[in-house]
Amino acid sequence: MKSNNAEWPVVSHVGGIPATTHDTHAKTPLRLIYIGSVQRGKGLYEILRGLEYASVSGIKVRLVIAGRGQEYASLKRFSENLGLGKVVSFVGPVFGADKAALLQSSDVMFLPADAEGLPYAMLDGMAAGIPFIVMQRNRAIRDLIIDGVHGLFVDADDPYDICWAITRMATDRELLVRMDAEVRTHMATRYFINRVKELSESLCARHKIPKLKERNMYSMQVEGGRRSDRGGIAAATVRLA
């Protein structure tokens, strides 16, 4: 790609995560996950409050927080003070095969309440077929996720709203399975590796950009994990090198 008389090579980055499976029995705990930095402005304290309300109401749920940041120790103390020590697990940052395994064993992913445009964790979640509880409504998120179809949108400042979303997904596993199917279909028809690669190459050909150099991110991210062509829907991005 040429810009200001300079040539910028374009690299196709391709990534994939094996798809998850959901337990359809409402009596089993709903497996929630958050992947990202642990800091204020993400809505994490509100998530824990919502989780507390749901647990007090008898909803069986588990939450894994994967990440680290300035609020890590404080958030962990807050969780323990709420009596969520056996409900919430803090596992720190996860990468590669550990990240893929965590995604495969999760039912719902929280998307943070900050202004981040397009969280990479969201793409990983969609690749694994995981529905979302969305705590933000920016344009990039709305382009990918439809409220009630691929997940549920909540007021990031309202723990009761978060509790409602947790409760609904925990008690209506058929809804969870339908959302899972919608996420997979959405990824397969619009963002599957071959589809995005085809569009990228077409774009490069139209603008006379040199042939793409392809870099397989899947092997780097999953480190030996097995990709399923049927269920392992993959996300792909194209960026300037």
* Termini Cα gap: 10 Å
Q: State mean pLDDT (0 to 100 scale).
A: 78
User: What is the name of the CATH topology of the largest domain?
Assistant: Rossmann fold
Taking pLDDT < 50 over at least 5 consecutive residues as the criterion, the unreliable ranges are 1-16, 215-241
Describe the global form: globular
Sheet with most strands? 6 strands, parallel
DSSP strand (E) fraction? 15-25%
Order of helices and strands: EEEEHEHEHEHEHEHHHEHE
Number of E-state strands:
11
Structure description:
- The structure is a single chain.
- The chain has two domains: 2-16 and 192-240, no CATH class; 30-187, Rossmann fold (3-Layer(aba) Sandwich).
- Helix content is 40%, strand content 20%.
- It has nine helices and eleven strands.
- The strands form three sheets. It has a six-stranded parallel beta sheet, sandwiched between helices.
- The longest helix is centred in the C-terminal third of the chain and has 18 residues, at 173-190.
- The termini are close together.
- Residues 1-16 and 215-241 have low confidence and may be disordered.
